[in-house]
Please model this.
Amino acid sequence: MNLALDVAHVAANFGQFRALNDISLSLEAGETLALVGANGAGKSTFLKILCGLVDSWQGTVNINGTPLKPGSPRQSSELGLALVPEGRLLFESLTVRENLMIGQTARSGPWSLEAIERLFPVLKERRNARPRELSGGQQQMVAIGRALASNPQILLFDEISLGLSPAVVREVYDALKAVRKEGVTLVIVDQDISRVCNVSENVACFFKGTVTHYGPAAGMTAAALHEAYFGGRT
Amino acid sequence: MTAAQFTVLIFQGLTLGGLYAMIGAGLALNYGILKVLQLAHGEYITYGAFAAIGAIALFPNLPFPLVLLLAFLACALLGAAAQLLIVERAMAHRNEVVAMLVTFGLAVVLRDSLAEFAGADLRGLSVGSLAQANFTIAGITLGVLPLVSLGIALTSFLLLALLIFRTRLGMEIRAVSDMPDIAALVGARVKRTHIVVAALSAGLAAIAGVLLAMRSSISPYSGLDSLLIAFEVVVLGGLGSIRGVLLAGLLLGMTQVISTWADNSAGLFYVHLVFFVVLVFRAKTGKLQ
Ligand SMILES: Nc1ncnc2c1ncn2[C@@H]1O[C@H](COP(=O)(O)OP(=O)(O)OP(=O)(O)O)[C@@H](O)[C@H]1O
Ligand SMILES: [Mg+2]
Model:
């Protein structure tokens, strides 16, 4: 069986600056990976590569056995990837309902608009609002809903709980449980390491563009992760 | 001034305003969505007029709606080709000035090609007996042609608004305009959307050109005058807002009709003046957008 996501020796530069170096990871279908690391470690860059938002990088990425071309967000979308980006990045010219609708693709699956609005009832109440009229938590729900609407096979979250109140973070993580039940493969970037490790099978820690720790989330000790977070290889 | 004269004046202002709004519509759409100031917009208007004039010369009995459709399609095709072959590549630099300069070159080439091909003479669109037709209600006599022109303008705006705000394509167009990368990631075809918008903009320009040629004569060198009006309408309307363009067109049309009534030799002076005053006021309050 093909891996859902197979990343081998990925590297990326911004000019002279090496943002990622020799990244190798793999996820089985339905697996959740926690991706942690300090600011500037390269987590967002890695997710952007998967989404086709970086024009040039080296290495190989296979999605369900299909090689990913650099810089083609449409291909990523067709291969079943969806992103909940850092900072939400909602379409301001679209209403909340339209932001969900634009996420829909030809792929069918459990995430109809009704199912998404059942997951986050507030999206139904505010369906005619513009994103900027919503609270940060509600905006994050729109971003998650937009990604779910494509019925993705692989769902990527960048800074899933950044700027959200504890109650909203709990609501978002509860929603993740429902998403995981549908067999979606997840990569979650979060600063709240223990919370994200709690819902993940594996955890990878990036430091200055390299993987300093990669292994099961369950046996992970706080000390080992702390070490990896600041550059020690574990 | 009698009430009847006043009504006629308002009607004339609306008609001219509708035409001005049409002249600006395509430019606003193109700028609002693609963020490219399409300097060949005036040429698209002229080409639309000449397409209609040519169609009637070839097929004198062609029904008017078909003439309009033909002009629309011809310019839409031209706009799509220009976007695909020229503007799209310039846009890849993500530099608005580069794209604008390219459209400037396009404008000059289009203008000179038309002059070379069709001659530099002034022409008008003959609409036969419709030109003189009029009707009288409540003792007020109005022309049929201006009414048709106003109807076409308002219908075009209505259809444009429906397309942009009520269809899946329109949703995709707005999303691509907001954030092309993220739109592509949710499955939008960015390049195709750009081409559709450019085609639609040029098609709207063609309709404006037909309305313009029904009202006055036009030459291959009329594009710059049209672009000037379009530019004023679009800036007044808030750089890309469909409703804003309609209101700005009506304001400038009214201004011209009323100022001409007061001073026969005023021409476009008061139109430009109103534009300038509003612009200065907005620049002062920092609300240019
Ligand atoms: N477009 C870009 N041009 C130049 N440098 C970039 C660009 N994008 C990212 N970088 C650099 O690459 C490095 C990795 O950035 P990235 O955003 O991937 O980190 P991150 O792990 O997501 O950090 P954070 O936790 O702050 O979100 C940073 O040093 C950043 O400055
Ligand atoms: Mg980041």
Notes: Strands of chain A lie at 5-14, 17-27, 32-37, 58-63, 66-67, 81-84, 154-157, 185-189, 202-207, 210-216. The two ends of chain A are 29 Å apart (CA to CA). Chain A has one domain: 3-229. The pocket of magnesium ion (ligand 2) is lined by residues A 43-44, 86, 158-159 (CB under 6 Å).
